[in-house]
Structures are given as structure tokens and as C-alpha cells.
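To the wet lab folks,

You asked to see what we're planning to order before we commit. Fair enough. Below is the target structure as C-alpha cells, and below that is the sequence we designed to fit it. If anything looks off to you, flag it before the synthesis order goes out.
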């Protein structure tokens, strides 16, 4: 039996998936069903595009994701550099592949903020390396939801 298209999943209480996309990892966060709070998921170790997208598809189905928020690495002055261009292309590909709305969200300083929060919580350097991408994804998603809720 073929899998149900993602766009036809039930629309009630759809969650939002936040992504902090890097070259080696993708930090992941998911909203609660009401879209109020973000919680981190396991960080995805990137292998190749097919494997990455297969993993994301499983999460989209498991959590009944209705929208995606992708961290958008703008330059400090607000301009779009090479990384931002790459992320725009990645976001467009996500939208085509999963037939879901994809929002780019300014991620300037989220990794630095995540590291600062983890230091304040006295998390070890080794553990920080393991969770910083997840924390950045939570910050991206939470700030997007907070702005949307205003």
C-alpha cells in the first residue's frame, strides 16, 4: 500500500518542525500541538541528501508536522551571503519534497546564544558539543512561534 502523501495528513493540531542546518548536522526541534513551546529532538548527523530527507520525512509523519522553519544564516548586517543562498535553496527543496510551507527565520547569533545558555547551565564542553545544534533549533523555532503569536 503506498504511503499517504504528506500534504494529506490530518490538519488538526499540526506541529511545526524547526531546523538548524549545518554541513555535518541538523539540529531539530518540534512544537507542541498548540504551537506555543518548542522542544529539542535528537540531532541528525548528516550522511547525504537522500538519507537526510528520509529521516526528515519520518519525523514529519511521526509528529504530524504541518510547517517547517529553517534557520536562515544572514550576515550580521542583515545581508544574504553564500550560506544564506544555500539555505534558501535547501528550504525550497524541502517545500517541493514535502509539499509543506517552509519559513526561513533569521538565525543570527542562535548558536552563540545556545552556547551561552549551556555554559550558564554549567553543561560540560563535551556535552555542549552534543546538544548545541538542538538548542539552536529550539531557539529558532521558539522565536518564530513567539513572533507569529504576536
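Sequence we intend to order:
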Amino acid at each position: 500500500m503506498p504511503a499517504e502523501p504528506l500534504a494529506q495528513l490530518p490538519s488538526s493540531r499540526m506541529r511545526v518542525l524547526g531546523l538548524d542546518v549545518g554541513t555535518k548536522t541538523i539540529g531539530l526541534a518540534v512544537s507542541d500541538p498548540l504551537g506555543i513551546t518548542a522542544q529539542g529532538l535528537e540531532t541528525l548527523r548528516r550522511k547525504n541528501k537522500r538519507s537526510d530527507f528520509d529521516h526528515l520525512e519520518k519525523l514529519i509523519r511521526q509528529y504530524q508536522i504541518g510547517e517547517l522553519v529553517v534557520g536562515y544564516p544572514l550576515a550580521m548586517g542583515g545581508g544574504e551571503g553564500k550560506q544564506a543562498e544555500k539555505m534558501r535553496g535547501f528550504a525550497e527543496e524541502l517545500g517541493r519534497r514535502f509539499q509543506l510551507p517552509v519559513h526561513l527565520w533569521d538565525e543570527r547569533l542562535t548558536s552563540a546564544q545556545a552556547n551561552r545558555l549551556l555554559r550558564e547551565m554549567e553543561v560540560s564542553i563535551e556535552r555542549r558539543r552534543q546538544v548545541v545544534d538542538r538548542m539552536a533549533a529550539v531557539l529558532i523555532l521558539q522565536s518564530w512561534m513567539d513572533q507569529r503569536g504576536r
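Structural context that might help your review: The chain is about 45% helix and 25% strand. The chain has a mean pLDDT of 86.

Thanks,
Computational group
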